[in-house]
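Table S2 (continued). Query chain:
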Amino acid sequence: MHTRTTNNKWALITGASSGFGEEFARQYASQGHSLVLVARRKDKLESLAASLRTKHQIEVIVEGVDLSDLDSVKSLHQRVQERGISIDVLINNAGYGLQGGFQDGNLNDALSMVQLDIASLTAVTHLFASDMRAKGSGKILLVSSLLAHVGVESFAVYAAAKAYVLRLGEALHREMKQDGITVTTICPGLSDTGFAETARMQPSPLLKLLMMKPAPVVKAAIRALNAGRISVVPGLPNKFMALFIWASPRWLHQAVFARVMSPKTVSSIEGGKAQ
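Corresponding output:
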C-alpha cells in the first residue's frame, strides 16, 4: 500500500514490539513521523506497522533484530544508511530486568541483561549519534528506571545497569549539546507495560496504586526530550520517591525500596521491553 509521509522526520524506536516501545511508536506516528521499528519479534512489529500505516498514512519500516548481538546492531545501522534514511529521533528503549538474588540467579541471565541494557544501548547510541553529529542535529532518548537512583537487593544487576544508562545520558546531554544533539534520560517507575502479566507477577496493593500506564510515561518523555531536559521522572509518586532518595541516607531509602520491591511483592520489573 502506498503511504503518504506527513512529516519528513524519522524516529527509530528499539524494543518497539510492546510496552513503552509500542506506545512511543503510536505517539510519534500520531505526530506524523516516519518510523523505523526495531525488536526481535518481527511478527509483532509487522502488525503494529500495518496499523500505524493505515491510521496515520506514514511510512513504517520494520527491522527484526536481536540487539543483544553487536554485529546485528552494526548491520541495522548499515541498512538504515543504505536506505538513505536520516534518523532524527532515537528512542533507545530496548532492555529488560530480572528479579532475584545475585548468587541465586543464572550467570548467563545476568550477563545477558548487562549485554542488552548496557553494551547494546551504548552501541546503538554511538552509531546513530555519529550520523546526527554529521548533520548537526538530532534527539536521543535513553530509557532508564527509577531504580537507577538506588541499589536494591534482588535487583542488583538491573539497578546497576539502569544507573549506567542514567549516568551515560547525563554526560552525553552536555557533551553532545555542542553538536546540536539533545540527549534526555527518562526514569520511569513500575508501569503497566504488559510485562507483569507475562511474568505472572502479583503486585502488592501499593505497587498497583503506583503503577503508571505507558501513555502518560511516554508523553512525559517526549515532552522532556523536546524541551531539551537532561532527565525526567514521570508521575508525582515517582518524583516523590526520587526526592526521598536524594534527601535520605542510603541505609534508609535502600531499606524502603527493599521492602517495596521484595520478592513477595514483585517477581520482575522492566524499564523497557526488549522482546
